[in-house]
Amino acid sequence: MSIENTAIRTTYFSIAGNVFLALIKAVTGFFGNSYALIADAIESTTDIFASFLVLLGLRYAKKPADENHPYGHGRIEPLVTFLVVGFLIGAAIKIAHDSIYFIRTPHESPEWWTLIVLGVIIIWKEISYRYVNKRSDQTRSSSLKAEAWHHRSDAITSITAFVGISIALIMGEGYESADDWAALIASGFILYNCYLIFRPALGEIMDEHVHDDLIDEIRKIAGTVEGIKDTEKCYIRKAGMKFHVDLHAVVDGDISVKKGHDLAHKLQNTLQQKIPHIGHVLIHIEPDHLMME
């Protein structure tokens, strides 16, 4: 299965999970008198829409290169990530606003059984985070990484809700708003996660140099190609799940132009075969005697 299809299938998993959990949280929060759970449901609802955005982005990024997009359509991924971050920021602001309202409004303590539901939710969201994060590492998808952090932020808000409800139940009268304070704290965690999601996507758009490990791998593979004596400059740009490479390769300065041309193609094909997530490779040939000068 291609990395694109793997990413898309993982997004379907996230959508299904978020729909189910949003319903569970909303019903439990309403009947269990817990705004922290209702706040959790609000975030899960935004996650559903965000997951659909990720899905649309991944499907668009999968389109092959064309005349207007010679490097493919992968740059849609960080743009979708920015939209996802916007959804999360909106959810955090909504949760914070409503938490403050409920803190100032007298209400009943949450029901004890809401803790059981929260415990199950926390376990499931952490499992979901680990699964989606593993797939994001495999596919090197920034939008899928954002999707994974959605699950982790959801687990965090559920943990804060669990703590808040526990305090309200244990301490009794006068502590009914503990879970509302938990929801307010959770909104801060969500905003912090927004930064963690946003920063790598911004780096991708700005062609930030963060690919030293891949450069080392490229140089190592280039050294195995007969006729390639060394490598010089190596620049990498990430676009979606593909990495585009500009590489200067050192060859014997006395060979013909045709031989140098053939070596460049041999090196390009070798890199693309051994590193599947490499997209375009531009090889610039440097004669060795020029390097010695």
Protein traits:
9 helices; 69% helix; 2 domains; Alpha-Beta Plaits; 293 residues
Describe, in plain words, how this protein is organized in 3D:
By secondary structure, the chain is mainly alpha-helical. It contains nine helices and three strands; from the N terminus they run H-H-H-H-H-H-H-E-E-H-E-H. It folds into two domains: 3-205, Alpha-lytic protease prodomain-like (Up-down Bundle); 212-292, Alpha-Beta Plaits (2-Layer Sandwich). The chain has helices at 3-31, 35-61, 76-103, 114-139, 142-171, 178-205, 212-222, 257-274, 288-292; strands at 230-239, 242-251, 278-287. Helix 2 (35-61) runs antiparallel to helix 3 and helix 3 runs antiparallel to helix 6.
What strand order characterises the main sheet?
1-2-3
Low-confidence stretches: none
CATH architecture of the largest domain: Up-down Bundle
Helix content: 55-70%
Largest sheet: 3 strands, mixed
CATH class of the largest domain: Mainly Alpha
Order of helices and strands: HHHHHHHEEHEH
The proportion of residues in beta strands is 5-15%
CATH level-four homologous superfamily name of the largest domain: Cation efflux protein transmembrane domain
**End-to-end CA span:** 48 Å
Helix vs. strand class = mainly alpha
